[in-house]
Amino acid sequence: MTPRGTFIAFEGGEGTGKSTQARLLAEALAARGIDALVTREPGGTPGAEAIRALLLDGPQWGPQAEALLFAAARADHVARAILPALEAGRWVVCDRFVDSSRAYQGGAGALGDTAIMDLHMIGSLGLIPDRTILMEVDADVAAARLAARDCGRADNIAGRGEAYHAAVAAAFVRFAEADPQSFVRIDGNGTAAQAHGAVLAAVEPFIAARA
């Protein structure tokens, strides 16, 4: 029987460097001969990418509808991409997963953690990453990165106000403090190379276990 693969999720607020670090980790794994599916949320499958367009570039949704759409996108993503890869023994490196729904819709959107995790259990069988990398940067650093990235054209969620994003960041900190076995907090204020070194250290036990 093929051993189950390893599931690594990158989390954090806007402009924290999640996408860059996910890519760098996949490249480092490939250099070691480790096959990894690199994916993102919302997205990762044709159906989930269609929902992504509705969420980020479509009409503004209320928090309940938004949570349902994210859960639907994740259910398709898990069923059609993530679980098949893990069952085939591959690594999965995902830019956001359920903790983003917990922080954004559950925390900043005030729906609460129970509602989000109930949806996750129904749609995605309660799947949890083996290790969650929480990227953290100062608010002014994130703002500068977003200004350079978005050029004044932020999507529906990234464009929300400072108080909303502060609530998101606070929620992520609560999750990490409550579950230090699953979360590793990475300082993303420095260079991408510095953060990458810390990410590699965080996943090294999983690499060593499969050697």
What would you note in describing this structure?
The structure is a single chain. By secondary structure, the protein is of the alpha/beta class. It has one domain (7-209): Rossmann fold (3-Layer(aba) Sandwich). It has helices at residues 18-31, 46-57, 63-87, 98-108, 113-124, 139-150, 162-178, 192-209; strands at 7-11, 36-40, 91-95, 131-136, 183-187. A five-stranded parallel beta sheet has the order 2-3-1-4-5, with helices on both faces.
Give the helices and strands, then pairings.
Blueprint: E1 7-11, H1 18-31, E2 36-40, H2 46-57, H3 63-87, E3 91-95, H4 98-108, H5 113-124, E4 131-136, H6 139-150, H7 162-178, E5 183-187, H8 192-209
Parallel strand pairs: 1-3, 1-4, 2-3, 4-5
Helix pairs in contact: 1-8, 2-3, 3-4, 3-5, 4-5, 4-7
Key words describing this protein structure:
211 residues; alpha/beta; 8 helices; Rossmann fold; five-stranded parallel sheet; 57% helix
Characterize this entry briefly.
It contains 8 helices and 5 strands.
CATH topology: Rossmann fold
**Integer average pLDDT:** 94
Total strand count, please?
5
- What is the second-level CATH architecture? 3-Layer(aba) Sandwich
Spatially, the strands of the biggest sheet line up as 2-3-1-4-5
Strand content: 5-15%
Order of helices and strands: EHEHHEHHEHHEH
Total DSSP helices: 8
Low-confidence stretches: none
Q: Share of helix among residues?
A: 55-70%
Q: In CATH, what is the class?
A: Alpha Beta
Number of domains: 1
**Could you give a short account of the major beta sheet?**
5 strands, parallel
CATH superfamily: P-loop containing nucleotide triphosphate hydrolases
The global form is globular
What is the CA-atom radius of gyration, in angstroms? 16 Å
Separation of the first and last Cα atoms: 17 Å
Given helix and strand content, the structural type is alpha/beta
